[in-house]
Amino acid sequence: MSTVPWQTIGRLAELFTRLDTARGIPAEQQWTLQVLKLTEEVGESAQAVIGAWATNPRKGQSHTWGHVQEEVADSAITSLVSLHRMLGDQAPAFFEAVLVRKAARFLDLDDDASVPPLEGA
């Protein structure tokens, strides 16, 4: 995996930490606020899905699936920034370890036969 995304995530995390620290916000409160920001971003993803499906009768189709993808990416970025703000330079290794552990619940990475083929593939 390229290290460029993590470098950018780190720069964002450092910027937000510096700004919050200058405002006198303690570290754990900064982390809490960053996680709340993540919740906001996930809500915007949900709002975009509602708009893509046109399920709000007052708004109709207010979003496209491109909007949904953008909001999901915002959620992912905010999540990684949150992790970096809490763990610093240890965030990439922590994320990778958690990803491997969580993926192992679903994927047997040594046995492609454990995943059934898709119909029509």
Explain how this protein is built.
This protein has 121 residues and is mainly alpha-helical. The mean pLDDT is 92. The protein is built from four helices and no strands. α2 (27-53) packs antiparallel against α3 (65-87) and α3 packs across α4. 14% of the residues are buried. The longest helix is centred in the first third of the chain and has 27 residues, at 27-53. The chain has helices at residues 4-22, 27-53, 65-87, 91-104.
Keyphrases for this structure?
121 residues; mainly alpha; flat
Outline the low-pLDDT stretches.
none
How would the global form be characterised?
flat
Instruction: Give the helix/strand class.
Output: mainly alpha
Range of helix content: 55-70%
Strand residues, percent = under 5%
What is the topological layout?
Blueprint: H1 4-22, H2 27-53, H3 65-87, H4 91-104
